[in-house]
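If your schedule permits, I should be very grateful for your opinion on a structural question. I have a record of one protein: its chain in single-letter code and its fold written as discrete structure tokens. Would you kindly read the sequence against the tokens and tell me how you understand this chain to fold? Thank you for your consideration; the sequence and its tokens are set out here.


***
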Amino acid sequence: MSFWSDPIRVANEWLNGLLTDLLPQAWATLIGNVIGVVVVSSFGLILVIFLIWLERKVAARFQDRIGPNRAGPYGLLQTIADIVKLLTKEDSIPEKADKVTFNLAPIVSMIAVLLIWAVIPFAPGWIGTDLNVGVLYIAAVGSFGILSILMAGWASNNKYALLGAFRAVAQLISYEVPMLLTLLVPVLLARSMGMMHIVHDQSLWFIVLAPVAGVIFLVSSIAEVGRTPFDLIEAESEIVAGYHTEYTGMKFGLFFAAEFLHAFTVGVLFAILYLGGWRGPGAEQYPILGMVYLIAKSSIGYFIVMWVRSTLPRIRIDQMLDLNWKVLTPISLALLILTAILDKMFAETALRAPVLLGANVLVVVLSWAIIRVLSRRSRRERKVFKKRPEARAV
């Protein structure tokens, strides 16, 4: 095996051999695992620096601006300058805040995102921990982010921060329902919760078999991140600045960085669950190609997230919750049931793909028809109400 065909595996075998020669087996395994955690975490943290610059540039193009262009070539050092500024800003803590919880909240927020990367299959054999319940693990550690928001609002001893945290938690928990339902669709299609197994099973991408589930997963994940148009959880015009009102300096920076990394992680998960992950020509022979494919596919999902943020306006809280409970959740539940039944019936036949795709089209058509009927009924009721004398008097 040459270094260039599989550099990660070659480096891992060399490091394990070196540690085994120098230390007892238990210590060698422990240190090797710690080094692996540090490498994956450092990759995520360094990636944030580039993502912030990239999103500023993309948003600038959407809004007919130039974006960062002063600090370094093409403005590449602008994010570094912002990090230095945040590190040197005064660290203030409210007098009556719960200091331990207050300081832990931004750390937990970042850890919640980094923990997801432990089960991300970057390429054949390139995975931190190949759990057979990887999807369940992602759903579990994703809840830590909700906990960090509640910790931040509660520990700040600020009523506005607490109200912002409660509303944020209400939003995040609500949108977890359709997100988890659509997470189960690839599990049903692959008949496994293992992330590597889901990638291996996508000889035909799952976005072809369940396109509506993929779209709902992406929309609900954007709401989970708190990006526009679902950014009411930290909207300055709503409740000061939300749950992180009292945070300054690098503590605020950690919330900021966690959001950007989480947005890219959404793109990575979308690529793994619905776009075949690292699969592509030559990926089995040259794993480095697999990582290139994964990054390219992840960029598609991340670009959609940036596109939505730069295009759509913020929606009201009632519209946001109506979209979740009256549209996304019923559709995702119907898709889950249909996928389970039809995939079992046509599992070993050539009709599997067209039948599942047709079921998705049918669900969309029926949902659109129901929404139109309900919307017309609602408009008629509003017109009748406005014509009433008592309504005009009010």
